[in-house]
């Protein structure tokens, strides 16, 4: 059975992390980048998580997981080293149709966290369906080399151009044509080579040319 790939909007969503170790800290940091309301349940925290709690970046309940922790929760990650706790978290979430990921325990997950190449608004996600996190990491490292930081700036630039086109081009047919032609193979290669200004010039040319043709 295939997995359905999606990107979730977690802004202001309550997300629960059960566990306070290094793995939990990595999961919390990823959720924080998405603007989630993060709740951590654990009797102990890493120094990093403790700092986040003291700064008000996460909510921490010192103690062990309880079913009540799931109230109004959108997504759960269980990252403890106690199988009994992880199994309980997974079972409670699945009964309530809550998204849950138990670290390193694919059968008890209804979603998997992919290995991700972060280029600001551009994200490349790799998943092996829980079969091999090591393979996903190796592919991610390869993609990080292939898609360097230039793609972050260029993708943000395309976003600003897209907004301008939507605001300034009233005709839907012309607007669709401009957006379709913003990037071609040559432009893509220029970005890979780090030639951002040349790539941007090609985008600007498309906008100007297509408008002149209307």
Describe this entry's structure for a reader.
- The chain is of the alpha/beta class.
- It is 48% helix and 14% strand.
- It has eight helices and seven strands.
- The protein has helices at residues 22-33, 47-54, 83-95, 133-146, 150-168, 172-181, 185-192, 196-213, and strands at 14-18, 37-41, 59-61, 75-78, 99-102, 115-119, 122-126.
- The strands form two sheets. It has a five-stranded parallel β-sheet with strand order 3-2-1-4-5, sandwiched between helices. Strands 6-7 form a two-stranded antiparallel ribbon.
- β6 (115-119) and β7 form a beta hairpin.
- α5 (150-168) packs parallel to α8.
- The mean pLDDT is 93.
- Pathway: Porphyrin-containing compound metabolism; siroheme biosynthesis; sirohydrochlorin from precorrin-2: step 1/1.
- Residues 120-144 form the Siroheme synthase central domain.
Describe the structure concisely.
This protein has helices spanning 22-33, 47-54, 83-95, 133-146, 150-168, 172-181, 185-192, 196-213; strands spanning 14-18, 37-41, 59-61, 75-78, 99-102, 115-119, 122-126. The chain has 214 residues and is of the alpha/beta class. The mean pLDDT is 93.
- Name the structural class: alpha/beta
Number of helices: 8
- Work out the number of β strands: 7
Order of helices and strands: EHEHEEHEEEHHHHH
Biggest β-sheet description: 5 strands, parallel
Indicate how many domains the architecture comprises.
3
CATH domain class of the largest domain: Alpha Beta
- Largest sheet, spatial ordering of strands: 3-2-1-4-5
Identify the overall geometry.
elongated
What average pLDDT do the residues reach? Answer: 93
CATH architecture of the largest domain: 3-Layer(aba) Sandwich
Percent range for β-strand residues: 5-15%
What is the C-alpha radius of gyration, as a whole number of Å? 22 Å
How far is it from the N-terminal to the C-terminal residue, by CA? 47 Å
Helix content: 40-55%
Can you tell me the CATH superfamily of the largest domain?
Answer: NAD(P)-binding Rossmann-like Domain
Low-pLDDT runs of 5+ residues are none
């Amino acid at each position: 059975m295939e997995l359905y790939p999606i990107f979730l909007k977690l802004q202001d969503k309550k997300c629960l992390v059960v566990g306070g170790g290094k793995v939990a800290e990595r999961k919390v940091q990823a959720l924080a980048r998405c603007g989630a309301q993060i709740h951590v349940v654990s009797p102990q925290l890493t120094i990093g998580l403790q700092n986040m709690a003291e700064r008000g970046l996460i909510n921490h309940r010192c103690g062990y997981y309880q079913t009540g922790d799931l109230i109004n929760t959108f997504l759960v990650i269980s990252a403890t080293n106690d199988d009994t706790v992880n199994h309980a978290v997974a079972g409670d979430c699945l009964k309530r149709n809550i998204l849950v990921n138990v670290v390193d325990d694919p059968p008890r997950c209804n979603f998997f966290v992919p290995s991700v190449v972060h280029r600001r608004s551009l994200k490349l996600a790799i998943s092996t369906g829980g079969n091999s996190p090591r393979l996903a990491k190796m592919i991610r490292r390869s993609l990080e080399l292939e898609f360097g930081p230039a793609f972050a700036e260029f993708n943000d630039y395309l976003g600003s151009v897209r907004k301008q086109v939507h605001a300034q081009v009233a005709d839907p047919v012309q607007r669709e044509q401009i957006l379709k032609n913003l990037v071609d193979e040559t432009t893509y290669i220029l970005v890979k080579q780090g030639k951002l200004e040349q790539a941007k010039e090609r985008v600007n040319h498309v906008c100007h040319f297509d408008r002149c043709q209307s």
